[in-house]
Every structure is written in structure tokens, then in C-alpha cells.
Design brief:
The chain is an alpha/beta fold. It contains 18 helices and six strands. A four-stranded parallel beta sheet has the order 3-4-5-6, sandwiched between helices. It has a two-stranded parallel ribbon with strand order 1-2.
Length: about 500
């Protein structure tokens, strides 16, 4: 099984080997209009070829860079040979984008590559279980390269009369070095999760996480594929005043992003869990959407403002679904008033729902989970919903701040007690999410402006933004995550 360290090093080398031409090629083509475009593309491909071979040679000579602890499989050395096809694919897709062929990027990076690794990994597991993921990764990169080069030949043809020129190659490399640095930094920020996970999880768990991530992050993958090439192409079209070409390019990007998001949402839902939705009012709309995707959705009526229905809720869920694997505690209310004027009734209402009921739901769920969970096998997952006010004080919400601070502390206590029993207890701390609870803040022009000014993302979060975090904490990839409060806040706490 390939280690995360190897994947990080190899993909970083691949990004650097592109030498910024994912962005720079469009500019080079627009500036050299009198030159055969196939020659400009050939220069770019040759430069990436040479750079890729240098990195490949270095990693073959010094494998410790990929496997610092020596933990690599029999076929892990094959991973180094993905640097060349990866880098050439990036250049090829940039060349296609210059000819307004967005579909090439979609087919190569967002369809062929992630689905190839997923399918190949599943098939090869039965043939070479110890090296299946490494081989699947290599095959996916090669498949993406093949799909990327077919439209390049159609758009530009063979570079007749072209020959490599060392001086021209060197000047091109020097010109693109700043872009290469920017690409490496941008890529690194998207791979931190893999590097961090490798410090706590087994190679097998990291491998599974990586394979699943290829499918789960398709919409973002598609977006980041378009970002570097869309700007230069639009600039080139503006140069000649071709606004219709700009419109065509933007429309293509929009279409593919929307289409792929819809498709991936369906695919992930089809592979997801059955659901029991608990609340005072029936979540009929949610149930319809879940059932339309082929999953079960049981509606359980209960008023969680008190602990009275807690035991019955857990028993009902187990009776309907057979077992309770995951508990997400997201019921909560809020009351706003100056601390000097805050009433006892509002205090008790918030604390009962947000903290007291949460604890006893955790308790009831854990009593069930201890019957089948274990440290080394299947594990129960509890995900509590905390808040940014688990870290900060806030204003005019004393009971809410107290309750969410309590959720944070309680999450850590339960993790300490229940980890040996095979139960993971973690929490999500949402930032400013557009829900009914925050409607008053959104309607307050001054407070809304103040909030947006502090959030680096410069927007309110959506409930869907919490989904990825909840999915991770509920998955096997989080088996070694305990007592953690994961902030999903658009960068609020970082400011």
C-alpha cells in the first residue's frame, strides 16, 4: 500500500514539472500568433517532459524522499512513473482550453481519472491486494493522459518542421517559474488533509480515504481544473475583442460544473446511509429526496426540548433500521437578549435542548453501540454540533454560548470514556450558517455586514457546507479522530 508521503511527494513533483504552463500556455499562444501553434504546444510539452524526467530520476535515485520510513509495497516504485503523464496531461488540457474545448478537461480529470482509480482499485484488490491501490493510481493517471492527448492532436496536429531549441526552452522555464511556485502552493493547500491523516491513520486507511476522495471531491476537482486556464483564455479573447468566445467559454464551464455536481450528488447519496430523521415536525421533503435516491428514510416524531422521548427515539430507530451506527446531534435553539435582561425561562429552554438532551441522546445511543462496537472492528460514531461560540464568547446569547461551550467539553469527556469501547465522539463547530437560527442576523444590515467583513470566504455558509465534515467524522477514515471539534467557518477563527 502506498504511503501518503509518497503520494504527496509524487503529486508535488508533478505539479512543479508542469512549470506553470497550465496558466502560461494560453499567454504564450496569444503572444506568438505568427508562429505555428503546434510548435508552441510542442515547446511546452517538451519542457514538461524534460522536467518530469529530472524529477523521476531523482526520486528513483533517492526513494527515501517518497518513503521516509521504508514502508512501501512491492510495486510502490511504479508510482514515480506517473510524474511524466500527469505533467503532460496538464499541458495538453491547457492547449485544449485555448481552443475552447472545456470538455477535454471534464473527460480527463473529472470523469476518467477518478472513476478509473475507483474501478481499478476494486478490481485489483482481488488480484494484488497489497499493491492494488498503487497500480490503480498509475492506471488512472495514464488513462487521463490518453484521453487528454486525443483532442490535442485534433486541434493542433503534429508539429511539422519543429525542433527543440535549448535556449528557447530555458527562457520559457525562467518565465514560468513564478507560475510554477503558485501552482505548487495552491496544490499543497488542497492536500494537507492527506498529509495530516497519514500521521494518525494506517496506510490502508489512508489509501481508502484517498480513493474515496477522488470521487467525493469531483465538483471541487472540476472547479480547480478550470480556474487556472479560464483566466488566460478570457484574456486572450479580450485582446481580439471576441466577447462571444468569452461567453461560450464561461457557459461551458458553468454547464459542466452544474451537471457534474448533480451527478456526483446522486452517486454519493446512492452509496450513503439509511436515515432516521427525528424532530417535532415531519421532514417530508427531506424524506422524499432521500428515498428518490434509493435510501431508506424513517421519520421519528419527538420533541427534543426535554429528555423524555430520548430512550423511545433510540429504540424506535433501532427497531426500524436494525442498528444505530451514527448519531448526529444537530437539534438546537437560540434566544437573543442582553445578559443583563436575560430570563430564566430562555436560559432553561436553550440549555435543555442544546446540552441536556444532547447528553442523554449520546448516552442512549452509546448504550446501544457498545453492544456491537469495538476498537479494532466496527465503531460507533457520534457527531455533536457545537459552535464557534464553543471557542468564543459572542454577545447577547448567554445561554447559547454556555450550551455550546458545554457541548465542546462534553464531546471531549465522552471521547475519553468511550474510545476504549469502540465509539468515536467528535463535534463540528459551524460558523455563520444561513439557517432559521441566524435569520435575525442576516436581516440586520449592520451585523450582517460586520460578519461578512470578518469571514475570509466573504459569504454565509450553507447547510451543505457541513455535510463533508459530518461525512468524514462518521467514516472509517476518522477512526483515530477522537474528542476533536472541527470548525467549518469559512476561515472565521483564522482571522
Amino acid at each position: 500500500m502506498a504511503t501518503a508521503a509518497a503520494l504527496v511527494v509524487i503529486e508535488l513533483a508533478s505539479q512543479v514539472a508542469v512549470l506553470g504552463q497550465k496558466r502560461g500556455l494560453a499567454q504564450q499562444l496569444s503572444e506568438n500568433e505568427t508562429r505555428d501553434p503546434s510548435h508552441t504546444v510542442a515547446d511546452a510539452l517538451t519542457l514538461s517532459l524534460v522536467t518530469s524526467l529530472v524529477f523521476t530520476g531523482l526520486l528513483l535515485l533517492f526513494p527515501k524522499l517518497m518513503f521516509p520510513n521504508g514502508a512501501n509495497g512491492d510495486l510502490s516504485w511504479l508510482l514515480v512513473f506517473t510524474i511524466l503523464p500527469f505533467a503532460l496531461t496538464e499541458v495538453a488540457l491547457a492547449a485544449c482550453a485555448y481552443r475552447f474545448d472545456i470538455g477535454a478537461t471534464v473527460r480527463s480529470r473529472a470523469i476518467v481519472e477518478p472513476w478509473a482509480i475507483s474501478i481499478a482499485a476494486g478490481a485489483l484488490f482481488f488480484v494484488v491486494p497489497d499493491s492494488g491501490l498503487e497500480l490503480a493510481y498509475v492506471l488512472s493517471i495514464i488513462a487521463a493522459a490518453v484521453v487528454a492527448f486525443m483532442p490535442v492532436l485534433r486541434h493542433y496536429g503534429m508539429p511539422t518542421g519543429w525542433a527543440p531549441h535549448p535556449v528557447r526552452m530555458f527562457r520559457l522555464a525562467m518565465r514560468n517559474l513564478p507560475l510554477a511556485g503558485a501552482d505548487a502552493i495552491e496544490w499543497g493547500t488542497r492536500k494537507l488533509d492527506l498529509a495530516i491523516l497519514a500521521q494518525f491513520a494506517s496506510p490502508a486507511q489512508v489509501g481508502v480515504y484517498f480513493a474515496v476522495q477522488q470521487v467525493a471531491t469531483l465538483p471541487q476537482k472540476l472547479k480547480t481544473s478550470f480556474d487556472p486556464i479560464l483566466g488566460p483564455v478570457i484574456t486572450a479573447a479580450l485582446k481580439v475583442g471576441d466577447r462571444s468566445a468569452i461567453a461560450k467559454q464561461v457557459c461551458q464551464v458553468g454547464f459542466w460544473i452544474v451537471a457534474m455536481q448533480a451527478g456526483i450528488a446522486l452517486a454519493l447519496a446512492a452509496a450513503g446511509a439509511d436515515i432516521a430523521a427525528v424532530g417535532r415536525s415531519a421532514a417530508d421533503e427531506t424524506a422524499e429526496k432521500v428515498r428518490a435516491l434509493g435510501r431508506r428514510c424513517e421519520l421519528v416524531s419527538a420533541d427534543l426540548s426535554s429528555i423524555e422521548p430520548v430512550t423511545e427515539v433510540v429504540d424506535t430507530v433501532v427497531d426500524k433500521l436494525g442498528r444505530l451506527d451514527i448519531l448526529v446531534n444537530n437539534a438546537g435553539i437560540i434566544r437573543r437578549e442582553d445578559a443583563l435582561d436575560f430570563s430564566e425561562a430562555d436560559w432553561d429552554a436553550v440549555m435543555d435542548t442544546n446540552l441536556k438532551t444532547l447528553f442523554f441522546l449520546c448516552q442512549a445511543a452509546a448504550r446501544h453501540m457498545t453492544g456491537w462496537a469495538s476498537q479494532d472492528g466496527e465503531r460507533g460514531k457520534i457527531v455533536n454540533v457545537a459552535s464557534l461560540l464553543s471557542f468564543q464568547g459572542g454577545i447577547r446569547v448567554p445561554s447559547y454560548t454556555a450550551s455550546k461551550s458545554g457541548v465542546g467539553g462534553l464531546t471531549k469527556l465522552l471521547a475519553n470514556e468511550w474510545a476504549p469501547r469502540g465509539i468515536n465522539v467528535n463535534a463540528i463547530a459551524p460558523g455563520y450558517i444561513a439557517t432559521n437560527n441566524t435569520a435575525a442576523l442576516q436581516a440586520d444590515e449592520t451585523r450582517n455586514r460586520q460578519i461578512l467583513e470578518r469571514i475570509p470566504e466573504q459569504r454565509w455558509g450553507n447547510p451543505a457546507d457541513i455535510g463533508g465534515a459530518a461525512g468524514f467524522l462518521s467514516s472509517r477514515a476518522a477512526d483515530y479522530v477522537q474528542g476533536h471539534i472541527l470548525a467549518v467557518d469559512g476561515g472565521w477563527l483564522a482571522r
